Amino acid sequence: MLFNSLSFLIFFPIVFIFYWLLNKNLKFQNILLAIASCYFYACWDWRFLFLLMFSIGLDYLSGIKIENSQSNREAKFWLILSIGINLGFLGFFKYYNFFVQSFADLISGFGLKTNIWLLQVILPVGISFYTFHGLSYIIDIYKKRIPAERNFIDYSLFVSFFPLLVAGPIERATHLLPQIKVQRQFNYDNVVSGLRQILWGLFKKIVIADQCAIYVNDIFAFHHGLYGSTLLVGAVLFAFQIYGDFSGYSDIALGTARMMGFDLLKNFNYPYFSRNIAEFWRRWHISLSSWFRDYLYIPLGGSKGGNWMRIRNTFIIFLVSGFWHGANWTFIIWGGLNALFIMPSIIFKTNRNNLNIVAENSVLPSLKEVFQIIVTFGLTTFAWIFFRSDSVIEAFKYIRRICSYSLLKIPQKDVLWLFSIIFIFMSIEWIGRKSNYAIENIHSINSRFIKWSFYYIIVAMIIYFSGEEQSFIYFQF
Predict the structure, then answer these.
(1) Catalytic annotation, residues
(2) Least enclosed by CB within 10 Å: which of 53, 78, 389, 468?
């Protein structure tokens, strides 16, 4: 069930109405949301619902066992058991084929042949996200940051809450569980704000991401015979496609949750206005970046051991982050490139610069900031080529073609109209960059005509560009 589908347009209003009819009974509200979340997930493939429930049951019991342990050794046993089984399932479904094929390719380089068995099974949607929900939960119990949750329904809802189930944000038990356990009150302003953020998320997905995808898919599929200028256009359009697609999903998730009284973690904070790569990664997929920081980077020693420790740990988290995205060397190289790009900030300890919003006290950025934003966007777009390519060889062919003399030729795709829409979209994002989402404060416009005209235009564009339902990119991760 996609957020941009007719089925969700029917599903969510029904859940919303019954949810608030149960306003005075927290237990029934949570039961309703848990059942709705299971149905939402089962719509993808009901067979994988059993895998989700097993993961929930495993971490629920492991959390209680860890808390009740009489010794650290016993607690560590249950921690390792839970982590091992969770990562085992993740590794089997997501990485088995990658490792087997890589091993076969390696030994074939020595002239040896082998018969390999590959899995012919689809990846359970959302497995990377709900696995990380569970891992953070049991680790936090082991570290005595939170108590184990005794209410199975509440814990199930924490992991399976349908707005965030298949593509995040990756929530922490310390943030979401307390909200699940307290009575939520209907708030008209939150409902309106949620609808507004959903609207903006749908615009990002349908008008920006899906329209970019039409050209991106064609350019990357047939890049061998296209000009370098056309391939450059394709790379830039993919940068906007993946931003519109993933941040659009996050906006819909946050808006949907807010309508039901929940405050989810902000996952994007205008990343393409970043002035260096370090700032970009504080603003892009924030919940994943912070997860790796807290549960991998800091346990590895963080920045305490000097530059060498910082460099080593930075490479580790970026390479792991790349591998988390997919079982392909292209993702690992993408992660490695981002690690290289961030190295100057790590070495010269400038990674904590630019904590404020760009051009915070002015309408337009300075020339220096414009240059920094362009360079950062350029580096990010270059890395996205590997992210999007089917293989490392194809990525290098794509880049080599961009660097040819054909880069100076007129692109073979007429995308001026699309870049015009992207320019308007990014202008709105720039104006609203101090808000949680770009059109959060549009209600404060005094002119009702301007305000409602804007809404009507956004809705009209969403309807006009709506066609066949397009899945979200991050569902494959």
Answers:
(1) 325
(2) 468
